[in-house]
Amino acid sequence: MAALKLITFDLDNTLWPVDEVIRRAERRCAEWIAEKHPDAAAYMGRDTMVRIRNQLLRDKPGYIHNLTALRRDALALGFREAGYCTNEAALLAGQGFRVFHDARNEVVFFPGALETLELLAGSYQLGALTNGNADLKKIGIHELFDFHHSAESIGRRKPEPEIFQAALQSAGVKPEQAVHVGDHPEEDIHGARQQGFHAVWANLLDQSWPQHLDSHPHRIHNLHELSDLLAMLDD
After folding, report:
1. Rounded to whole angstroms, how far apart are CA atoms 224 and 163?
2. 42 Cα distance to chain centroid
3. Shortest CA distance to 178 belongs to which of 194, 154, 156, 160?
4. Interatomic CA distance for residues 29 and 36, integer angstroms
5. Domains of the chain
6. Residue 220, strand partner residues
7. SS3 of 11, please?
8. Helical pair 67-81 and 86-104, crossing angle rounded to 10 deg
9. In 10 A of CB 2, how many CB atoms?
10. Is the pTM of this model over 0.70?
11. Residues lower than pLDDT 70 in the chain
12. What is the pLDDT of residues 128-159, one digit of tens each?
């Protein structure tokens, strides 16, 4: 078997838990709107914004590949429905999204995440593959990665093949020389294995493996376990 050369990581719920991060970011954005534009805040409640995002996704399914555009355009539509003109709504949406995105990148890593990345970066190429819009520079770990591909940058989201193929091209390796580590059974593990990657299920949130997927992959429950598993795969 070819020696492993590339380790790719999903980000949200693989290196840090994300649900509370998103809730906090939405709350901070809502607080910003309430402080700066209370008239709009009275209209742009959570239920309204969920309705608007769902409406945009129905009208333009391609938004699923660009969560930044979806959230920013939803804010703009919310401001327009609250009575603001198109230009001002777009300006405020950009400002509101920056408030959201700054908070969205205030993450708390899972135990062992940073230590594992720092250890592996000395022996492998590391890549980040995400369907989300985390900013590695804002988070402070971009120097640990050789590249970062997202659904936004590729135009396709996992488990579609393009994002995995982009990783192989960036690293200049064959699929059998690559391992993908992620939390999502379908998007991460099944998607990676379909492209010939080894895959490690980072089941840090104690999910159940879906019955419709054939076989259980290599799995870890703590990122400290990853180095030993990679050594076994590389043997």
Report:
1. 26
2. 31
3. 194
4. 11
5. 6-16+110-233 (3.40.50.1000), 19-104 (1.20.120.1600)
6. 202
7. coil
8. 130
9. 11
10. yes
11. 1-2
12. 999 999 999 999 999 999 999 999 999 999 99
